[in-house]
Amino acid sequence: MQAVILANGEFPKSKKCLDILQNAPFLIACDGAVISLHALQFKPSVVIGDLDSIDSHLKALYNPICVSEQNSNDLSKAFFYALNRGCDDFIFLGLNGKREDHALANTFLLLEYFKFCKKIQAISDYGLFRVLETPFTLPSFKGEQ
């Protein structure tokens, strides 16, 4: 089963990313990411995190899952929540922007998450990252970026 996890970084605006949000079979918002989803009238399946970023109005609307422990970030809380519900194919959106330390940490977390599932992609308005198992041959052509 596929899960789309929206982190609270730069909200994606590209058609591809918005289509992913619109058609997500299981959409998880990491804490404050629900603010942008709500503003654009997307309805997440689940809102999860330590809930330090959303107000009481959104808490009442979405009945979020509070995971107050501080040994992991909201992205990890969302990932393991989905993993425990049978998800093994993940698309992450909103990993970059706002804070560079969060963007870097989120990118490295993808390598850890890959140990637990079959497919991971991080997609933004600027490109796509996939974690690949080695050995792997990536077909390309001269000049491709």
Automatic annotation (TrEMBL):
<dbReference type="GO" id="GO:0006772">
    <property type="term" value="P:thiamine metabolic process"/>
</dbReference>
<keyword id="KW-0418">Kinase</keyword>
<dbReference type="Pfam" id="PF04263">
    <property type="entry name" value="TPK_catalytic"/>
</dbReference>
<dbReference type="InterPro" id="IPR007371">
    <property type="entry name" value="TPK_catalytic"/>
</dbReference>
<dbReference type="InterPro" id="IPR036759">
    <property type="entry name" value="TPK_catalytic_sf"/>
</dbReference>
<dbReference type="GO" id="GO:0005524">
    <property type="term" value="F:ATP binding"/>
</dbReference>
<dbReference type="InterPro" id="IPR006282">
    <property type="entry name" value="Thi_PPkinase"/>
</dbReference>
<keyword id="KW-0067">ATP-binding</keyword>
<dbReference type="GO" id="GO:0009229">
    <property type="term" value="P:thiamine diphosphate biosynthetic process"/>
</dbReference>
<keyword id="KW-0808">Transferase</keyword>
<protein>
    <recommendedName>
        <fullName>Thiamine diphosphokinase</fullName>
        <ecNumber>2.7.6.2</ecNumber>
    </recommendedName>
</protein>
<keyword id="KW-0547">Nucleotide-binding</keyword>
<dbReference type="GO" id="GO:0004788">
    <property type="term" value="F:thiamine diphosphokinase activity"/>
</dbReference>
<dbReference type="GO" id="GO:0016301">
    <property type="term" value="F:kinase activity"/>
</dbReference>
<dbReference type="InterPro" id="IPR053149">
    <property type="entry name" value="TPK"/>
</dbReference>
<feature type="domain" description="Thiamin pyrophosphokinase catalytic">
    <location>
        <begin position="20"/>
        <end position="120"/>
    </location>
</feature>
